Every structure is written in structure tokens, then in C-alpha cells.
User: Fold this.
Amino acid sequence: METILARQSVVIKCNLGASILMGNYEFYYAGGLLCALAGKNPQQVLQPGAFYAYLQPLFDTYEPKNEKEAYLVKLLREYKVGEEYQEQMAQLMQMGLQEKHIWVKHPDI
Assistant:
């Protein structure tokens, strides 16, 4: 999988305020992004269920600064975590944690 596709999918969904997360690839990018926004940094890459549990307190404590951030929290809160885990998910979490151009579909532009 091209990791940029999962990133762009999450960005488009938050920009439009529509759809749901469609798998753990999107979940890991979105979770990393929420951690970055909330100033949290997981010390290690967690398996899907543990990562969701790590994020859960943020669903209630993080105060979104705009509608896009609010939709990101909604996407994550409503996501049903699958057990699938692959190395690219760690990369996606890091992409979210290090995001510099949030909400831009093509960060190279």
C-alpha cells in the first residue's frame, strides 16, 4: 500500500466531514495525527487494540480547534478496530505524528 493514499483519504474525509475510516492503515495515520494535535507521543508502536485504548482518553479530553479536528475525533471514536497489523502502520502513525501540512491534500504543493 502507498502510505500517502491513507493520509490523503483521512484528510479528504476530515475536509468534507463525511465517511468513515476504512481500515487500520487510515486508523494509524488518523491516530498519529490526533496524538500530534493533542501533544501526545506514544513511546512505541502499539498493536491496534492497544493503540485505540491509548487514544480513547483523548476522545473526551482533546478540545478540537475547528470542524476538521472535531471530525477527526469522531472518525476515531466510531472506528471498529481490526486486529490486522503490518509494518506500514507504524510508518503511518509516524506520518501523523510528524504532519506539517494538516488538511492539505497534496503536502508537496
About this structure: Residues 38 and 58 are 8 Å apart (CA to CA). The chain has a mean pLDDT of 94. Residues 24-38 form the longest helix (15 residues). Helices lie at 3-16, 24-38, 48-61, 67-78, 87-97.
